[in-house]
Amino acid sequence: MSHTVNSPSSPPQPQGMLFVACDLDPAADERDFNRWYDREHVEERVRIPGFLSGARYFSLEGGRKYLGLYLTRSLDAFTSDAYRAAFQRQTPWSVANLDRMRDPMRRVCAVTAQTGMGSGSHLAVLPLAASDDALQAQAQALGAALAEIDGFVHAYLLTPDASLSTPLPRESPENRRLDPIFVIEAGTEAAARALRARARETLGARAADAWLMALGWKLNAADLR
């Protein structure tokens, strides 16, 4: 399989991010769902070449109950033979738990307009209504402003790739939008709330559309044995 090779004069490819959020069937075995995610799914994905980390988050306010974020070196990780094999040949445990998801949201995104670095204990997630040419610059400027607020760790814009963001089995194709998502990582819940409020005001996002998430755990590729 051929892969894109950057020439010395071309800009580096942005990192990639797999964003998977969901609720659960009320009748589902939630304990088994979490055991699957924690004991099989995250590690399975992070072992794929090109994946850098996988992290699980839990909703404090808004959004879906569960969120998984998987960082990759570039979007090429999602076109590799290894990823295709993992995505197309799910284990029986995966099949059972993917069917338990309700209102899932799967997006494969380019990570751009980054400010700061590292991971925070809390996330503010702002799904945006639409994208335009000015959004990248606006997100970059917003990140720089947020970086002045205590507790800020990292901010970035996620732009879904339509060809790679294929839906999960339980994801409805009706009114499915691939809009950008602005993410803020913070060191405390209080900081995440303050940063979320500032970002909402700047981006014009509705309060009901802004999520607040707490980190459960994170696995880095460098941690694998």
Features:
225 residues, alpha+beta, Alpha-Beta Plaits, eight-stranded antiparallel barrel, 33% strand
Mind sketching the topology for me?
Elements: E1 15-24, H1 30-46, E2 51-61, E3 66-72, H2 81-88, H3 92-98, E4 101-116, E5 122-127, H4 135-146, E6 152-160, E7 181-186, H5 189-203, E8 211-220
Antiparallel strand pairs: 1-3, 1-4, 2-3, 2-8, 4-6, 5-7, 5-8, 6-7
Helix pairs in contact: 4-5
The number of domains is 1
Q: Determine the fraction of residues in helical runs and give it as a percent range.
A: 25-40%
Global shape: globular
CATH topology description: Alpha-Beta Plaits
What is the count of helical runs?
Answer: 5
- The CATH architecture assignment turns out to be 2-Layer Sandwich
Major sheet characteristics: 8 strands, antiparallel, barrel
Summarize the structure.
The protein has 225 residues and is an alpha+beta fold. The chain contains five helices and eight strands, in the order βαββααββαββαβ. The protein has a single domain (15-219), classed as Alpha-Beta Plaits.
Describe this structure in words.
Helix content is 26%, strand content 33%. It is of the alpha+beta class and 225 residues long. It has one domain (15-219): Alpha-Beta Plaits, CATH 3.30.70.100. It has an eight-stranded antiparallel β-barrel. Helix 4 runs antiparallel to helix 5. It starts with 14 loop residues before the first strand and ends in a 5-residue tail after the last strand.
